[in-house]
Automatic annotation (TrEMBL):
Keyword check for Calcium: no
Organism: Salix suchowensis
Protein name: ATP-dependent (S)-NAD(P)H-hydrate dehydratase
Function text: Catalyzes the dehydration of the S-form of NAD(P)HX at the expense of ATP, which is converted to ADP. Together with NAD(P)HX epimerase, which catalyzes the epimerization of the S- and R-forms, the enzyme allows the repair of both epimers of NAD(P)HX, a damaged form of NAD(P)H that is a result of enzymatic or heat-dependent hydration.
Annotated family: Belongs to the NnrD/CARKD family.
Protein origin, superkingdom: Eukaryota
Catalytic activity: (6S)-NADPHX + ATP = ADP + phosphate + NADPH + H(+); (6S)-NADHX + ATP = ADP + phosphate + NADH + H(+)
EC number from the UniProt entry: 4.2.1.93
Length: 368
């Protein structure tokens, strides 16, 4: 088989199959090698390796060692704002992933309907049934109700190291108005915010909510990225200049960090671009992005702790904690997805990947 410069990953896989080079799993394993050699979009090998993050070393550097003097909460307190009548899985996936990686406390702020369901998935999560959708609020009560919802979240705000806004949030207009206020409060309190799922639907039409906030991370999937590019750059997604376009997008939103999910995850804060392309899984079951948002929340919190403990002097690069959080979260999720796929093959589900998070982190960064 001749691997030519410019072949994309699918044509490489097909060509490998045509040449009967290897059974399917071995071909898939070869995918990682080929991605590294050719670049995911057939880009120049030098260019791709120049952008590839040193993810394992970053993971090792920011994951804290166990210390008997530390108390509950110091390894991270995260909150997920999401969960409504339709979606209860997404906020659960994000919140439980944060705990499985090593956060001490994980909260979920969701609607009243979603709360008992999410609680029943796990006793580990602290679930607040505080969000309201339009159908449960009379027109006259809206102002009063909105103030109540925002106050309920705000009284906890200072305790959180990071918020994840959007997994399974839904798109109810009243609920999204309340969430806009919650984002404003978090920003005022300088709490990092990861915006995912329906949170991106909200923010794409209200960019002022995050614009210019360096502690904001947007984690768009293919649809969400397309909408962001159209809205912010007023053009279509350009895969020929994926790095340049992502850089412009992050810059244009005032230096927020954008993690563009895909075959290879691309991350930019408007200053630099990094990619994470370690082998993941060919399964595209729903919920993997939710694991990612919960994971990034934990690693971002740890990266900020490390930076403040070292008074800003880091021996790793990049030094922006949002970039570090994204690189570590992406690398860990992809490794866990690959382990889960090895075990479960076609039946791999998001819950299987969550079960592999601990082992994946242990492989890279042993607990003792
Ligand atoms: N197990 C769970 O609980 C999981 C729950 N999940 C949760 O699902 C939510 C949506 O996330 P997703 O990833 O499906 O959004 P995406 O790919 O942009 O949309 C695909 C297509 O659907 C449409 N569309 C979507 N939402 C719509 C709405 N409310 N009302 C109307 N249209 C809507 C959309 O149309 P468009 O946006 O282009 O108008 C596009 O064509 C989000 O909260 C996520 O966290 C996931 O995390 C998976 C696991
Ligand atoms: N084509 C792909 N090949 C390999 N890995 C991918 C591919 N697309 C996405 N991923 C991986 O899956 C993770 C989740 O991305 P995905 O695009 O599925 O998010 P999402 O649609 O928001 O997920 P969710 O269903 O949770 O909302 C990404 O971090 C990326 O590492
Ligand atoms: Mg998603």
């Amino acid at each position: 088989m001749i691997v030519k410069h410019g072949m994309n990953y699918l044509s490489v896989l097909n060509s490998a199959r045509n040449h009967k080079l290897a059974p399917p799993l071995a071909v898939l394993r070869r995918q990682q090698f080929l991605i590294r050699v050719l670049g995911v979009r057939g880009e120049n090998i030098m260019q791709e390796s120049k952008f590839e993050a040193d993810a394992d070393n970053i993971l090792r550097a920011i994951t804290p060692v166990f210390d008997p003097n530390r108390h509950k909460g110091q390894a991270g307190k995260v909150a997920v704002i999401g969960g409504c009548r339709e979606y209860t899985g997404a906020p659960y996936f994000a919140a439980i992933s944060a705990l499985k990686i090593g956060a001490d406390l994980s909260h979920v702020f969701c609607t009243k309907d979603a709360a008992p369901v999410i609680k029943s998935y796990s006793p580990e999560l602290i679930v607040h049934p505080v969000l309201e959708e339009s159908y449960s609020v009379g027109d006259r009560d809206k102002d009063h109700m909105s103030r109540r919802v925002v106050a309920e979240v705000d009284k906890w705000m200072e305790r959180f190291d990071c918020l994840v806004v959007g997994p399974g949030l839904g798109r109810d207009p009243f609920l999204l108005d309340c969430v806009s206020e919650i984002i404003k409060q978090a920003r005022q309190a300088s709490i990092p915010i990861i915006i995912d799922g329906d949170g991106l639907f909200l923010v794409t039409d209200n960019l002022g909510l995050v614009s210019g906030y360096p502690l904001a991370i947007l984690t768009p999937n293919v649809n969400e990225y397309k909408r962001l590019v159209q809205k912010v750059l007023n053009c279509e997604v350009n895969d020929q200049d994926a790095h340049g376009q992502l850089l412009s997008l992050a810059k244009q939103i005032g230096g927020v960090t954008v993690l563009r999910k895909g075959m290879s995850d691309l991350i930019s804060d408007g200053e630099i671009v990094k990619s994470v392309s370690n082998y993941g899984s060919p399964r595209r079951c729903g919920g993997q992005g939710d694991i990612l948002s919960g994971s990034v929340a934990v690693f971002l919190s740890w990266a900020r702790q490390l930076i403040s403990a070292n008074e800003g002097n880091l021996i790793i690069s990049p030094t922006n904690p949002t970039m570090l959080g994204c690189i570590a979260g992406s690398a860990l999720l992809r490794k866990a997805a690959s382990l889960a796929f090895e075990d479960r093959k076609r039946s791999t589900l998001t819950t299987d990947i969550i079960e592999c998070l601990g082992r994946s982190l242990e492989d890279i960064c042993p607990a003792c």
